[in-house]
Design brief:
The complex is a heterodimer of chains A (233) and B (178). Chain A has 233 residues and is α/β, with parallel strands linked by helices. Helices cover 33% and strands 27% of the residues of chain A. Chain A contains seven helices and eleven strands. The chains are: A alpha/beta (233), B mainly alpha (178). Chain B: It holds the Pfam family PadR.
Chain lengths: 233, 178
């Protein structure tokens, strides 16, 4: 069943177009990789789908409701409940321990302190970083930090996880471990994932690949080809 | 790949029958090109002739295999020598993928070369996804992971080349057909 729909999304930064009419459906539990060369608009698409950015034109619908018309406060609320967001780095609050970081979204959503800590510990365990619970980010490896960030993105059990180059700052093995766990947990909880990456080997973890080029979809998955750009060195 | 050296390496772990060797090969090198029983016995015959392995038990004439093979001192020395020699890192650029794109540009046009690249990209992506599913399956062994990693790294490199070349096809065609 389609959960998230984008229709004719257009977004520019000043005179520079980033998205030039993107139409895309994301089903429940589906893992979709958004790929393409640098500057093709993949991060902008993720930000529009997650309600972080408002498109200049077009629609984003979440379970049939027009997300792009909501207030910033309403979209922000959605990101604390149904949407989880995971970036490349710099997401954990340095002054807080891993458990406190992971518990944060639950506390913001009104969960009691004790229940939030219990849930945080469960998710740290699921991501194999239980030993980091009382450690601050500065004392963890990059891989451990990213697992904690993943736990924090999943602790509210979102219906969609938006992950922008989630393994981009990690070495191959650490990146693979984070991604394997992320995908396994997403499948177990039927969480949809929008995974932005420029790496084919990362996109291979997804059910489907959407390739962007100059702000439009180049071709989808394995079947549908669009005209190819070319001729520049 | 050198099947004789591979069999010597497997025999270095202990004496084995031909059938056990074949099984050990398939376990240690999952995803490898299939190794036929006939090839195992033919290779063992040559290793035996050259004194690199010794046989114990009756010769295999017909019926069940009762001959066991063991590594000789000479066999161990040959194996050590092989393990010590560095493989030449890509001495020639001669992959069928590369050759096909060159020929497509020579005999056809930009669109033909590009169509081939797109189709090949799709096939590579599909295989990459299959191998990723294989290595993330719950029952996976380290043998499977290491073999899949090797294939994934090479497919990934091919895909990067395909993407870059897709962008260069028009310029390349102008160079080939000035």
């Amino acid at each position: 069943m389609t959960q998230l729909q984008a229709r004719g999304l257009v977004k520019s930064y000043g005179p520079t177009p980033a998205l030039r009419g993107i139409t895309l459906d994301i089903d429940e539990g589906e893992i979709v990789a958004v790929t393409g060369p640098s500057g093709c608009g993949k991060s902008t698409l993720l930000h529009c789908l997650a309600g972080i950015l408002r498109p200049d034109a077009g629609e984003v619908s979440w379970r049939g409701h027009r997300l792009d018309t909501w207030s910033e406060a309403a979209r922000s609320r959605l990101r604390r409940t149904d949407f989880g967001v995971l970036f490349q780095f710099g997401q954990l609050v340095p002054e807080l321990t891993a458990a406190e970081n992971v518990a944060l979204p639950l506390l913001l959503a009104g969960t009691g302190r004790r229940a939030a800590r219990t849930a945080a510990l469960t998710w740290l365990e699921r991501l194999s970083v239980a030993e980091c619970a009382d450690v601050r980010p500065g004392e963890m490896s990059g891989g451990q930090q990213q697992r904690c960030a993943t736990a924090r993105a999943l602790v509210t059990e979102p219906r969609v996880l938006f992950a922008d180059e989630p393994t981009g700052a990690l070495d191959t093995l650490a990146g693979e471990q984070v991604l394997t766990q992320l995908v396994r947990l997403a499948r177990e909880h039927r969480t949809s994932v929008v995974l932005v990456t420029h790496e084919p080997r990362i996109a291979a973890y997804a059910d489907r690949e959407v390739v962007l080029r100059d702000g439009v979809i180049d071709h989808t998955g394995l079947g549908l080809d669009a005209p190819l750009a070319g001729g520049s060195r | 790949m050198s099947t004789p050296h591979l069999l010597l390496g497997l025999l270095a772990t202990g004496t084995m029958h031909g059938y056990e060797l074949k099984r050990a090969h398939d376990t240690r090198l999952p995803q490898a090109r299939p190794l036929a029983f006939g090839q195992v016995y033919a290779t063992l015959g040559r290793l035996l002739r050259d004194g690199l392995v010794a046989s114990t038990g009756p010769e295999r004439l017909a019926g069940p295999d009762r001959t066991a093979y063991t590594l000789t001192e000479q066999g161990r020395a040959t194996l050590d020598q092989w393990l010590s020699s560095v493989e030449p890192p890509m001495p020639y650029v001669n992959s069928p993928l590369f050759a096909k794109v060159v020929v497509a540009l020579l005999v056809a046009d930009v669109d033909r070369a590009r169509a081939y690249l797109v189709a090949q990209r799709r096939a590579h992506t599909e295989r990459l996804r299959e191998l990723t599913a294989l290595k993330t399956a719950p029952s996976v062994t380290v043998d499977d992971i290491v073999a899949a990693d090797y294939a994934i790294a090479h497919l990934d490199a091919d895909l990067r080349w395909l993407h870059t070349t897709l962008d260069r096809v028009a310029d390349w065609h102008r160079e080939v057909h000035p």
